[in-house]
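Our preliminary data section would be incomplete without showing what the modeling component actually yields. Below, a chain of 125 amino acids is followed by its predicted structure, encoded as tokens that our downstream tools consume directly.
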Amino acid sequence: MRTLLITAALLLPHVCAHGQTVQQKAATKTLARKAQAQCDAQTPKVARTLTALVKETRVYAVFYSPKFSKCIAAVYLPIDKYLIAASLINLDPAAGTQHIVWEDLFPKPFDAISALDLQIDKLSK
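Predicted structure:
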């Protein structure tokens, strides 16, 4: 009986710590879902704003990244028939000005979208 009580006393902190970890993970996921919902709600406004700056700009996605405090916009711009510019733009105005997180040039829209998907996957984790 004594051995059982000692074992239980030793295991109790580990079980409680695991419970806190699960709760912290759940809270983090809930915050991420809320942040993504806010980004989704901003998509039309971001699209209108960026299109107003350069008419041909296409907003591919507006998403949440835990590495940044505000949403990130994934956009691409057809420069000509054989050149597409793809960018990820941090939409945080508190950082002074919105700035480009990543950009590259591609010969085809499909290549640009594939690269944007890859960058979104990297930053979403």
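The CA atoms of residues 74 and 88 lie 5 Å apart. The helical segments are 2-53, 109-124. Preliminary results of this kind motivate Aim 1 of the renewal.
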